[in-house]
Amino acid sequence: MSKKILTVDDSASIRQMVSFTLKKEGYEVIEASDGKDALSKIGSGGVSMVITDLHMPNMNGIELIRALRTNPSYKFTPIVMLTTESHQDKKDSGRQAGATGWIVKPFKPEQLVAVVKRLLG
Amino acid sequence: MDAQKQLYREEAFDLLAELEEALIELEQQPGDLDIVNRIFRAMHTIKGSGAMFGFDDIASFTHTIETAYDLIREGKLSVDEELISLTLRSCDQIKAMLEASVGGEGADASLIEEITASFKKLISSVQDAAPGQAESCPAGTCGDQVDGLNAEITYRIRFKPHRELFQNGTNPIPLLNEIRGLGHARVICHLKELPGLKELDPEACYTYWDIILTTDKDADAIRDVFIFVEHLSDIKVTKIDDYSEIDDEEYKKIGEILFDRGDISLSDLESILGRQKRIGEMLVESGKARRSEVHSALMEQEHVRNLRKKRMGAVSGDSTSSIRVASHKLDSLVNLVGELVTVQARLTQLAAQRNDHDLVQVSEEVERLAAELRDNAMGIRMLPIGTTFAKFKRLVRDLSTELGKEVNFTTSGEETELDKTVIDRLGDPLVHLIRNSIDHGIESPEQRRAAGKPAEGTIRLTAEHSGAHVLISVSDDGAGLDTEAIRAKAMEKGLISPDANLSEKEIFELILAPGFSTARSVSKVSGRGVGMDVVTSSIKSFGGTVEIASVKGKGTTITLKLPLTLAIIDGLLVTISDEYFVMPLNAVVECVELSADDRRRTHGRNLARVRDEIVPYIPLREVFSLGGNNPAIEQVVVTEIGERRIGFVVDKVVGQHQTVIKNLGKFLRHVEGVSGATIMGDGTVALILDINKLTQQVEFDESNLGGRMYHA
């Protein structure tokens, strides 16, 4: 069974790019437009990895990561944050919230695949 | 991807509209940082997504603008009307770039350059020497971009995660696998910090790893793999071996490795070293090091030792590494060696004459070195014959298809080495032989089936060493030679008289005669009757012989017996009335004495009795019309030519002589019976006898002149 990855981003084009790239690699991908949407879609288990943007309306990425880490089903799930800036403070706050890794935008599909493989094996 | 590009375009148009709005606002409130931030973000998104969706022109163009707005954000650059209008013009260009992908006319390149230049001027006005904000390498992915160095380097990596590694969802296994993917890696897991079950926190990471990695990537690529966990673990990457350390394959002792890694202290090591046992064992027994640590260190030692051994092998030239050299360089080397051997022979002779002990010692040393040098130089010219074999596969395939025959071609002995000059001259004869085998030897599939043979015929090309010779044979499992047909044909061509009584072997040899061909019609491939005699003469020209064996219905084997080398031969030095001659030693069987009495007993017929065998001999004094009188006891050098024994009568046998063959000059090239000359130690010239030719010539004279073995 292919692993399921949740991509969370308010930009439809990013979501679609992530989704297209990962599906080509054989992963199953579900999409959410913000943190709230993500929490409602993720359910209790079954998602192997979350890729989330940080700046989103309703619930931002940091809040989403914190929420997921308190959920026993997702305590140890790899979460990758997409940051538009390579600024260290954003990375740090994401890390403190419990993010596993990060990708700095802009990124190429290959870079996304490399990170997913690194964390999911 | 097109749907995605479409989506990006739509988003970018929205962003541009927002951007324009913000720009107009900014013009009215130049100090408002919120508006600057909005502009920056919009630019940033356009740039970032542009790069992702293949709009590289947009990405690079917006990058400059973004840099300018970053400076405004930081208060280094002030907003003025010029900047606003420049940005607005940029927006138009970005729109044009977006349109270009759906058939719009695209951006104005010169305008883009102008705008970019203006922005760069603004930037550099506040940012003198500072380089434009370099595009930072997206974290976590740099590894893909690192250019691998060619030389392989070995690293020791200790990856020791903190207890809370799992808390942010990290699984260390994929990381280890990624490291494995970088090169040749060996991983050892340490469990010594694992507590008892009672104290164990199942959500904590107690294990750590040692990895020995040999890779052509650099240390950054390794650190990059661990970039997500560098704050959650201790990672130590140490270069333990690189290509420069080539001098020896020995690697550090176990104790040193453990000390290097900080697993044990120097005093631990020294106190242990006092006792004598295997150091690893002792460390474990004494509790100074864990078995896994010692195991890991041993592994590192082994890994690097293997690596260095491999490298040493590569450097000292394993069979595979080679260089190409122009053959004329080799020729001149061999020539020089030849000269050296000649001079050395002179030196030896001189030393013997002078009876000078020191000189003899030196000359013996030179003799040994010269001999080694000669063997080496000759060895360089030796090539495996396999290179020639390879091209025949194609020939067989093409010919068999053309002739409608099924042929399986096998070769063996490709590694057999032969002098390059011999190999070069071997190509054409072999082509002839293989052609003949396919054309005349192998039958058509129908005929073969009718004869109870597999439809597919086999042609075997083999090479093997046999003393100073190499035997190359072409054999087929075809129809074999038809002695009756050959006989009839030879009579028709006038090669033999109708009443000639010939052995099977002699009949086979007829096919080697000029103008002989048994093929019923001249086919495209062979059958013009030129093949076999060309083969024979070219093989003979370099001292080889051709032998034929055939069984009717079973197949034919043609064997070429070739000398290993053409440049230097071992010769037997003989004299006839103070003239020196050299006979090829490999043909010489033995030397016997011939007294005047022996001569008389045979009544003028040149026959000697050697161990109850009658051996005809050729008196060389007469053949070469040399003056002087026969000594009372002459020597007969008995040689073997093909299957026959022929003796050559000389005055004296001097002994074995290393002979460097010098070709005779233009005038003398066609003298029969002499294949070349060599220079003796004292500078005199000795002729090298071509015993094959001599025998043929004498036989010819004999048959023409009625019973006389020679003519004077």
Automatic annotation (TrEMBL), chain A:
Residues 4-120 form the Response regulatory domain. Keywords: Phosphoprotein. The keyword NAD does not apply. CDD domains: REC_CheY4-like. InterPro entries: Bact_response_regulator, CheY-like_superfamily, Sig_transdc_resp-reg_receiver. The keyword Phosphoprotein applies. One of its GO terms (biological process) is phosphorelay signal transduction system. PROSITE patterns: RESPONSE_REGULATORY (PS50110). Pfam families: Response_reg. PANTHER family: CHEMOTAXIS TWO-COMPONENT RESPONSE REGULATOR (PTHR44591:SF25), STRESS RESPONSE REGULATOR PROTEIN 1 (PTHR44591). This is Chemotaxis protein CheY. It comes from anaerobic digester metagenome.
From TrEMBL, chain B:
It is an enzyme of class 2 (transferase). Pfam families: CheW, H-kinase_dim, HATPase_c, Hpt. Residues 325-566 form the Histidine kinase domain. Keywords: ATP-binding, Chemotaxis, Kinase, Nucleotide-binding, Phosphoprotein, Transferase, Two-component regulatory system. Residues 1-101 form the HPt domain. GO terms for biological process: chemotaxis. SMART domains: CheW, H-kinase_dim, HATPase_c, HPT. Residues 568-700 form the CheW-like domain. GO terms for cellular component: cytoplasm. GO terms for molecular function: ATP binding; phosphorelay sensor kinase activity. Transmembrane segments: none annotated. InterPro entries: Bact_Chemotaxis_CheA, CheA-like_dim, CheA-like_homodim_sf, CheW-like_dom_sf, CheW-lke_dom, HATPase_C_sf, HATPase_dom, His_kinase_dom. It catalyses: ATP + protein L-histidine = ADP + protein N-phospho-L-histidine. Its EC number is 2.7.13.3. This is Chemotaxis protein CheA. The lineage of its organism: unclassified sequences, metagenomes, ecological metagenomes.
